[in-house]
Amino acid sequence: MLQSIEGVYKNGKIELSELPSDVSQSRIILTFLEQKKATKKANYAGWYVFWK
Question: Cα–Cα–Cα angle for 8, 13, 15, nearest 5°?
């Protein structure tokens, strides 16, 4: 059975968000994703003042 578990690679270690179920030893394939870029939240209060 295949399982996908989210995690973070940091300082040479992998931290899993949860433990895999019913797995004591297994081969794995890691895919490194691009980091999410921070997005600015909309300033609705500013728009209200602008349109008022």
Answer: 40
Q: Average of pLDDT values for 22-46? A: 79
Every domain of the chain and the residues it spans: 1-33
d(CA 20, CA 9): 17
The pTM of the full predicted model, rounded to 2 decimals, is: 0.54
Closest Cα partner for 5 from 34, 14, 37, 24? Answer: 14
Question: Is residue 19 packed enough to be buried (19+ CB in 10 Å), middle (13-18) or exposed (0-12)?
Answer: exposed
Among 26, 33, 28, CA closest to 8: 33
